[in-house]
Structure formats: C-alpha cells, structure tokens
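Quick one: co-fold with adenosine monophosphate.
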Amino acid sequence: MKDIFCRIIDGEIPSQRVYEDDDVIAILDISQTTTGHTLVIPKKHYESFLTCPAETVNKVMMIAQRIGQAEISILGAKGVNILTNCGEAAGQSVPHFHVHVIPRYVGGEGGFRIEMQSQDTSKLNLPMIAKEIADALKD
Ligand code: AMP
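Sure, here it is.
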C-alpha cells in the first residue's frame, strides 16, 4: 500500500505545495507545529534518510535550506529547526524520507521543544563506543 506522501505526490490527496521539481516536493505539514512548518520530500520512495542515496539527500537538503531562508525572510522567523526522524523509535510516523523545516519565532509559538538530556556517562565506555562507530565508517 502506498504511504501518504506517495499519495500526495501522485495527486490522490490534496496538499499545500510550496515547491516542486522533477525530484522533490515541499508541502505544508498538516500539523503546523509552528506557522510555516514545511516538509521536503523526495518524489521517489525511500523509507528514511538512512536508506536514501546521497544525491537525493543533497537535493532535499538544498531545498530545505532555501525554505528555511524563506521562513526567516518572509515569515519573520528568527530561527529554524531542520530535522528528519529515522525509524519508529525516533518518532518517524510516515515511512517515506522527509525533512521537517520548522520556523521558530520569538515568544515560542507552538508547543515544540527539543530537549536533549545528558545521561550518566560514567557508566559508558566512551572510547569503545567512539571506536565502534569510527571502525564502521571505514568499511
Ligand atoms: P514524522 O513523524 O517525522 O514521520 O513526520 C510526519 C509528518 O507528516 C507529521 O508532522 C504529520 O503532521 C505530517 N503529515 C501527515 N499526514 C499529512 C498530510 N496529509 N499532509 C501534510 N502533512 C502530513
């Protein structure tokens, strides 16, 4: 079964499109976490950022950058959050790669807050973890 973004791309479901080219569309997120919250989506289906070819990631991120700039210059945002959730455990609810471009306004419109809390690192072997990731990157 098609995911909801494939159905939007195919015109089966309406959306507020802010950008479209041969490879990418950008639409307003239906939830509007803050005003102007936009999703940048490759037309070809990839499950997430992690499985998307680099060339397509680059195209998506270049459009995300332009939309972020527009949110600041046109909508008056003071900053933007650019994020992509990969996998259900990370909060991904639509299994089709997309990048959120979320404008941030002074006064904190919307209930959006990213909190990164430190855990007790004394129990972690940080050199070993760093080596495991570093070794994986060599393959
Ligand atoms: P994520 O949870 O990172 O997978 O993000 C999926 C996003 O898609 C959510 O922010 C939803 O609000 C948004 N969404 C779901 N259905 C639609 C739709 N029909 N049109 C626009 N955005 C949608």
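If it helps, The longest strand covers residues 99-104.
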